Records
---
Amino acid sequence: MPKTSIHKCNASGFIITATFIFSFGYAILRYNIMGNVPWKDLSFFILNKSIALNAFILLSFNFSLRPLVNLGLKVPEVLINSRREVGMASVLLIFVHVLMSFLIFNPANYGKFFETDGTITLYAGLSMLGGILSFVAILAYRLNFISQMKDNKSVMKIITSRGLLILTLLLGMLHVFFMGFKGWMDPSGWHGGLPPISLLAFVLFLFSSLINIIDRKRHTS
């Protein structure tokens, strides 16, 4: 029996590797080369930014493929077969990003998110709230791949619903919007003319949200 009949051919390894190389390269180019972030911060501060971008790209890819197919776009089967591994990788990357962010979230690294008395700003609080809720929603969505959960139909109906998926995307957009929307309004301040990573992430999730909403309305109309 051919191997492909047991294990469906997919491109998850290539997708995950390629997006990581792009994300890390973009972060280095924007912040170290074109910006003023010192190279000593490459191994943590810059890496954390690249991991965040990598996770957003993979999540958008994972959440967008099926709606695109439903809307009539011809997507290669090898990409469809990659969704599970890509989704798992995105969750792991988000978990790493959350841990790294908590370790370096201080006035020295993120001064704009802190008041003079050391408390976080309203925008920082909204961003953190959106990020945490989005992470929880993503974990809930991934539970549908745990065999023990599949027997609970009421739980499965919720965590596999299109509504939860769209909510996850909107919460992710909330996180990156309040993280950097002020910088989006001033392209002259973009390092080397390169858009901020938060803006790239917002656009990716906006696209994914829109096609999921369109697909949902198409099936409910």
Note: DSSP finds nine helices and no strands in the chain.
---
Amino acid sequence: MEVRRLHRVRCPLKVAVRLPGSKSLSLRALLAAALADGASRVVGLLDAEDTQLMRDALRGLGFAIETDHRGDTLVRGAGGFIPQVEADLYGGSSGATVRFCIALAALGHGDYRVDGSARMRQRPVGALVDALRSLGARIGYESSEGYPPVLVRAQGLGGGEVHIGAAPSSQMISALLLAAPCARSDVLIEVAADLPSRPYVALTLAVMQ
């Protein structure tokens, strides 16, 4: 058996590594930038199907979104105003995109349709729709009650109180939080049950701040 001694080599290593962006953070940043007043630059946006679906949906609602020479995403916000008065939005199998777009469409003034893939049509959105209705939104279903496609006949979001008894989806709470500052009056969200996936709600609040 041969034993060899290892020698330490002093060689400084300088490496720059760019990590891929977070999908959850990217979706929230895009929506917050669209609702903000003025232009925003989103750096490190994840290039994935879900984020592309969100960008396409925002463009469908009339928001200007571009990519500059550095690969950063430029979003021109409209200060809570939805530019288009009619849009057909598609969120694929991305539950966050579909739920966020339902809340976003409720802020507009016009007719909006929000749909998803065959799999997404089996995922419930009824609790979010009921919550938005309690804030003054007019939302109906195209086929199955409680599931996409959803038809939003929007006149802006009035505001008020939302009382949620059962354990809600964090995507539902995040959708309500992102839309709430653009309502005509204050919004109070009261959750009686334990909130699952609490870190995702904390992430939403951090982006909004």
Note: The longest strand covers residues 109-115.
